[in-house]
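Project outcomes to date are best conveyed with an example. Our students and postdoctoral researchers have been running inverse folding experiments weekly, and each run begins with a structure described purely in tokens. The record below, which covers 498 residues, was selected by the lab manager from last quarter's runs and is presented without edits.
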């Protein structure tokens, strides 16, 4: 489809649709092109390694550089990962797709062309759905096509010169292209996060943005409501969600400034500089005709049989949205809690393991999204590296549920598990003497002392201020060393002050 046809089709689809939130009176139009590096051990057309971090130019073979006499051979694992994405996003998997040569010269592409897919991509259509606050959003996909990555230009270590590392040349990519459906920076970032979650969840990409495994290009334009699409500018290689938000916000306001000053927007590819918070022009934006696509003579059409698709489907994990729906349906969690627990496959597995070990689902959810999340963020580690294992959390949650551990004592046990001070919840409770106060006489004495020392709270509670009781409960808990049961204390206080 030509760019003109795509624009006309999009304009027709938009008739009667409400505009998004306006920025300074302008509607924002955003589309994404995302390069997901596929998790194969070898490159897309050769057996060279894709391992990250090797010495420069030690993992680029003759096939990657298209030296005379070499022929590319398709990596089956790369195709299977493309099929997985198509199945996950409800796309059409083309039974026959074609590879083309995309011609351009750049220092990190010394052979002068990139093998990609143009007219017939392997994955066609589909959609990514996600929640932005309480509102469900859906971004339609145009395509996802297989291609090889280029090398990498290095500028930092060379004064007045650039170095070229060709290790990345030939690394398999899926370029995932959306319709221009997004209407705000928040929506664009939420889409990118959801796509990142999906490709890592199904295991086709490690999602490491710092290493370039998941790179986003944002096409941004603005227009007055009801006008035709504005001229788009492409922000290239956004490799963090924070920078993505900053770059799109800057570009939106920069384009509005240009239009308000009476100047036309110049179509271009731009880069975002985190140091200045600004975008700068990299090159004039090319269109499809500039690349002179033609079918690659060295590669036959890619044929994907229906049986192959079904074999791949049989290996697919439960998808994030289905997992969230199961949590709501089977465990009675809220949609918000379910969404929090399905931010990643490892996190969802941890929750499932805890519940399977006997944890009450809601309590387990609270601890995982609360104390556990706080600790993981502070330590800058993932759930896979958490010192507290799912079975240990299940044991802790069970002791809370059966009344053995008040919240304060439970946090002490969690701290001991996290620090490695102990590994068994019951043993930690015994060692730290954290069992609840069962001596009703001792508790009754504490209640009387607290009531006697807090006459103002007592008077306010008896005067109808229910919140005053919370202060009394807190004093009792403090006096008992956190061993009293808060619910029991509340009921006893109400009886004494009734």
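After processing, the design step wrote out the following sequence:
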């Amino acid at each position: 489809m030509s760019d003109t046809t795509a624009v006309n089709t999009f304009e027709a689809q938009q008739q009667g649709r409400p505009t998004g939130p306006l920025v300074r009176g302008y509607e924002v139009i955003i589309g994404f092109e995302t390069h997901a590096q596929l998790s194969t051990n070898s490159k897309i057309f050769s057996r060279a390694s894709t391992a990250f971090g090797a010495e420069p130019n030690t993992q680029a073979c003759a096939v990657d550089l298209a030296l005379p006499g070499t022929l590319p051979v398709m990596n089956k694992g790369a195709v299977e990962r493309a099929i997985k994405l198509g199945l996950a996003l409800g796309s059409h998997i083309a039974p026959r797709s074609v590879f083309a040569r995309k011609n351009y010269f750049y220092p990190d592409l010394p052979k002068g062309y990139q093998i990609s897919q143009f007219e017939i991509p392997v994955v066609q259509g589909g959609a990514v759905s996600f929640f932005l606050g309480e509102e469900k959003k859906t971004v339609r996909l145009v395509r996802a096509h297989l291609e090889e990555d280029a090398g990498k230009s290095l500028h930092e270590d060379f004064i007045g010169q650039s170095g070229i590392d060709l290790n990345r040349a030939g690394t398999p990519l899926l370029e995932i292209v959306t319709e221009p459906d997004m209407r705000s920076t928040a929506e664009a970032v939420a889409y990118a996060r959801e796509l990142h979650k999906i490709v890592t969840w199904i295991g086709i990409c490690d999602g490491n943005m710092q290493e370039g495994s998941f790179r986003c290009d944002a096409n941004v334009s603005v227009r007055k409501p009801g006008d035709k699409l504005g001229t788009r500018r492409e922000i290239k290689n956004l490799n963090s969600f924070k920078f993505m938000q900053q770059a799109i916000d800057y570009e939106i306001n920069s384009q509005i400034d240009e239009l308000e000053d009476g100047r036309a927007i110049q179509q271009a590819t731009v880069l975002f500089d985190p140091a200045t918070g600004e975008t700068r022009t990299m090159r004039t934006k090319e269109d499809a005709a500039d690349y002179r696509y033609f079918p690659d003579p060295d590669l036959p059409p890619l044929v994907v049989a229906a049986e192959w698709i079904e074999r791949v489907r049989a290996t697919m994990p439960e998808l994030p949205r289905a997992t969230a729906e199961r949590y709501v349906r089977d465990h009675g969690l809220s949609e918000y809690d379910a969404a929090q627990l399905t931010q990643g496959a490892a996190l969802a597995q941890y929750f499932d393991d805890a519940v399977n070990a006997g944890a009450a689902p809601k309590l387990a959810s609270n601890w995982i999204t609360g104390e556990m999340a706080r600790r993981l963020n502070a330590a800058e580690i993932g759930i896979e590296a958490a010192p507290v294992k799912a079975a240990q959390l299940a044991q802790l949650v069970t002791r809370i549920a059966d009344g053995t551990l008040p919240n304060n004592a439970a946090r002490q046990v969690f701290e001991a598990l996290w620090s490695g001070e102990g590994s068994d919840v019951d043993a930690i409770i015994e060692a730290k003497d954290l069992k609840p106060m069962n001596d009703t006489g001792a508790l009754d004495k504490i209640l009387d002392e607290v009531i006697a020392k807090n006459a103002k709270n007592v008077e306010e509670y008896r005067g109808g201020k229910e919140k005053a009781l919370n202060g009394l409960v807190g004093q009792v808990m403090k006096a008992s060393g956190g061993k009293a049961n808060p619910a029991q204390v509340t009921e006893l206080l109400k009886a004494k002050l009734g």
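Residues 241-260 form the longest helix (20 residues). The chain has 16 helices and 17 strands. The training component of this project remains on track.
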